[in-house]
Amino acid sequence: MKSANEQTAYPSVTIIGLAGIPLIEKYDDIGKIVCEAAEKQETSIHDGDVIVITQKIVSKSEGRVVALDEIQPSEFAKKISRHSRKSPELIELILRESKSIIRLVNGHIITETGQGWMMANAGIDVSNVSGGDKVSLLPEDSDISAQKIRKRIETLTGKSVAVIISDTSGRPFRDGHIDLAIGSSGIHPFLDRKGEKDLFGYVLKIKKTAIIDVLASASELVIGQVCEKIPVAIIRGYNFVQSDTAKSTMLLRSREKELFL
Fold first, then answer.
1. Domain 13-62+141-253 grouped into CATH 1.10.340.30
2. CA 19 to each of CA 33, 41, 51, 148, 179: distance values in angstroms, whole numbers, following the listed order
3. Can you give the pTM of this predicted structure?
């Protein structure tokens, strides 16, 4: 029998939910709040941690919350509203936040956001905002948001980390929702294993994993989407490819390569 020091080391990753995050207000310092919450629950931030933060609290801190009764809908928004289950004020905001409408059918609106993501309702969300009279918009540029938060965390802790901003999304041809990355900093979005050999010596021609999506989705195992008040997760033990310049928008497929548009 092997001693404790001789036990086989198997690959493992730890996902830690950060409790104690307060309700976020405009101008709140997300990086500082994350560091304080980690220290308070004795899971201080380490070198190589990936910190996944839900879009909602980032949007709140950036003032991207809008009261619906302050919106004057256009005639076009009113027309769409009559054929959907959404208020004309919400439709107007969706139109304002979209570069283009991808699908408009059976009350569902799929649009291309300003940053280039294909999302339902331009990523606008009513949940966990105010009870229904206000909505949150996506950050104007989630990659810049992630970079600012990462730099703040690194300044406060002296540790080198990556930051991913996640949001819930549906998927073509599959029911249910998962969290995906809409912003990142400090991490390359892909794990590219093209050219490596499999168990039988076959050289892989295509094997490029959208690793920031994988990490964002994994974080949902501990992040609470309802009343748990856990909007941040620390992923520890994953050896990611560090990058100061890579962005989440590298995941976007060009229109020429997109099969479903």
1. no
2. 11, 8, 14, 22, 19
3. 0.92
Q: How many CB atoms lie within 10 A of CB 155?
A: 11
Q: Which residues of 88-102 are buried (b: 16+ CB within 10 A; e: fewer)?
A: bbbbbbbbebbeeee
Contacts of 67 (CB under 8 A, 6+ apart): 133, 134
Could you report the per-residue pLDDT of 207-224, keeping only the tens digit for each?
889 999 999 999 999 997
List the domain boundaries for the chain: 13-62+141-253, 65-138
- CA 191 to chain centroid, in Å, comes to 18
What is the greatest pairwise CA distance in the chain? Answer: 76
Backbone φ and ψ for 81, nearest 5 degrees, come out as: -60, -35
All residues at 6 or more sequence positions from 103 whose CB lies less than 8 Å from its CB, including other chains: 109, 110
Query: Over 70: is that where the pLDDT of 67 sits?
Result: yes
Contacts of 133 (CB under 8 A, 6+ apart): 67, 68, 69
Please state the CATH superfamily assignment of the domain spanning residues 65-138 in this structure: CofE-like domain (3.90.1660.10)
**CA-closest candidate to residue 102, choices 248, 257, 256, 260:** 260
Match 């599959």 to its residue by tokens: 174
DSSP letter string, 173-192:
TEEEEEEEEEEEEEE-SEEE
Helices 30-40, 142-157: inter-axial angle, 10-degree rounding:
50
CA separation for the pair 60, 23 (Å, rounded)? 9
| Residue 7 confidence class, pLDDT cut points 50, 70, 90 | low
Residue that has been written with the tokens 């198997």 in this structure: 10
